[in-house]
Amino acid sequence: MSQLGYRLHQMVNDTHRESSFSTRATRSKILNLAAKQLLKHGYRLKDPAGLKTKHINHLVARWQDEGLAAKTIKNRMAALRWIAEKIGKPNICSRSNDDYGIPRVRNNPIGKSKTLDMDKHAKIKSDLIKFSLRLQQEFGLRKEECMKFSLSYALINANTLQIKGSWAKGGKYRKIPILKESQQQLIRDIAAVTKGALIEPDKNYKSQMEQYDRETIRVGLNKNHGLRHHYARERYLELTGWKCPADGGPHRRELSPTDYEQDTKVREQISQELGHERLKITYAYLGS
């Protein structure tokens, strides 16, 4: 690791330790790559404070020349903007990806929704990983959240779960309603085994994540973000009474003024339940 890479790693994981473990890991990986690529080009920076606009422009041009997907470059730009803000030089990065000629990413939700294949689910050896997968489906939790999930904290009452900020992407605390018998049954099943985090006693979060990945790949249950999409679509149907566009329902532009207003309120609620803030993020889950 270069000296610049080491300092960037420190800023992500020590000096400005924020967001979830997975977010920090991804951010650190991107910034370490950027440091290596700058050094390879001859930029011998020793400290992040030395970053300038020319360095950002070089990285973007390199990534575009490599033919990387727009979504990949967009994610890398988010890491660069984060570090630019932390060193007090936000203007070294343009606020808009359009200024770099990075195409806008169009989210297509079709095909992303999935439900658990319970035959494959039964082949998983760890009860805690089984619970984690069910939490993803029943409450739309992210992978990290469903491992750090601790019933002793999460269960406010019979009708509400709370997700601690330290479990969540962006550190966003939120509440999720408990409405269905399948959700209540899951809570009963977890309570019968543990009220602590869904991490094996001999493991930490990182090693539990590795076991989750191995087990789900082994039985063919990997790529489970679609379980969050399923949760979002089910909630939309429950709250509006009609299917979302991704499931063949009407597009927002086709709704009456009254239904459009309801659609907006429902999308805002679902966005919050998923741990997001913006209505537009629901386009990736529900369609538009």
UniProtKB/TrEMBL annotation:
<dbReference type="InterPro" id="IPR024456">
    <property type="entry name" value="Integrase_catalytic_putative"/>
</dbReference>
<keyword id="KW-0233">DNA recombination</keyword>
<feature type="domain" description="Putative integrase N-terminal">
    <location>
        <begin position="1"/>
        <end position="90"/>
    </location>
</feature>
<dbReference type="GO" id="GO:0003677">
    <property type="term" value="F:DNA binding"/>
</dbReference>
<dbReference type="Pfam" id="PF12835">
    <property type="entry name" value="Integrase_1"/>
</dbReference>
<feature type="domain" description="Integrase catalytic">
    <location>
        <begin position="127"/>
        <end position="233"/>
    </location>
</feature>
<dbReference type="GO" id="GO:0006310">
    <property type="term" value="P:DNA recombination"/>
</dbReference>
<dbReference type="InterPro" id="IPR024457">
    <property type="entry name" value="Putative_integrase_N"/>
</dbReference>
<dbReference type="Pfam" id="PF12834">
    <property type="entry name" value="Phage_int_SAM_2"/>
</dbReference>
<dbReference type="InterPro" id="IPR011010">
    <property type="entry name" value="DNA_brk_join_enz"/>
</dbReference>
<dbReference type="InterPro" id="IPR013762">
    <property type="entry name" value="Integrase-like_cat_sf"/>
</dbReference>
<dbReference type="GO" id="GO:0015074">
    <property type="term" value="P:DNA integration"/>
</dbReference>
<protein>
    <submittedName>
        <fullName>Integrase</fullName>
    </submittedName>
</protein>
